[in-house]
Design a protein that fits this description.
Blueprint (H helix, E strand, L loop, with lengths): L4 H7 L9 H8 L2 E5 L3 H13 L3 E5 L24 H12 L4 E5 L8 H5 L4 E4 L4 H13 L4 E7 L2 E7 L6 H4 L11 H8 L11 H19 L9 E6 L2 E9 L1
Parallel strand pairs: 1-2, 1-4, 2-3, 4-5
Antiparallel strand pairs: 5-6, 6-7, 7-8
Helix pairs in contact: 3-4, 3-9
Length: 248
Amino acid sequence: MQSNEDNYWKIATRQMGMVTRQEQEKFKNAKITVIGCGGIGGETIEMLARMGIGELVLVDEDSFDITNLNRQNFANSSTLNQDKSRVACENVRLINPHVKVTAISEHVSDDNIDEIIGDSNIVIDALDNILTRIFVSRKAREKKIPFIHGAIHGTLGQITVFLANTPSYEQMFNLPSNERPLTKEVIKEIENMTSGVPPAIGPTPNLIGCLQAMEAYKIITGIGKVNVAPKLLTFDLLDFASFSINEI
C-alpha cells in the first residue's frame, strides 16, 4: 500500500459520516500509549490503527506463548515466543502504514514510566496486575493525561476513564495504596491482593479493547459522551442484561 495522504483518508472513509475532517485530523495528530499488548491491548491497538490514530507507543515485556492463542489477536503459531510489543508494532504497520509506531519491550516501573508515557495524549491500561496500574495511573494523573482503565475476569469486564479532576484509580477502587507512598510494605499489601492467574476467554478482553479504543476516539475527537470515573461500565457476557453503568 502506498503511504500517502490520500490513502489515509481512504482508510477512514467509512467513519467520516460520524466525524468532521477537523475532528478526524485531531485523531490523526494524536499520540496514545498502550501498556499491555496481549488480550485487551491487542484489540485496542488494532482498533486504534484501523481508526487512524497518528502515533502509538506499545509497551509489553512479555512474549507470546501457546496459552495466549485463545484470546490475543496478535498471537498465532508464527508469533509464539516473540516479543508482544514488537509483534504488535509489525501488525500495526501492516494494518495502517500511516501510523507512527514504537515498541517498548521493558518492565514498567516507577523509574521509567515518565519516559514511557512522554507527551502522549492518552494512556490506555491493558494490564493484568494492580501494582503496575498504580505506577501508570499515578504518572498519567500527575501529567494530566486521560487514563483509560479496562480489566477482565472470565466473562466479566469493566471500563472507565480517569481524568485529572476525577477520583483516582486507587481512590475509586479503595486500594490500600491510596494517598500513601509506595513503600515496601504498601507494595506487599498490593501484591497480596492478587492470587493466581485469572480465567480469560476471547470475547471478554476483545470487547474491552474495542470499548477502550472508542473511548480514546471520543476523547480526542470530542464526539459522544465519555464514561468518566466514578462511573464504571460493567458486564458479564454470560448475561447480556448485566450491562450497566454504576457510580462507585
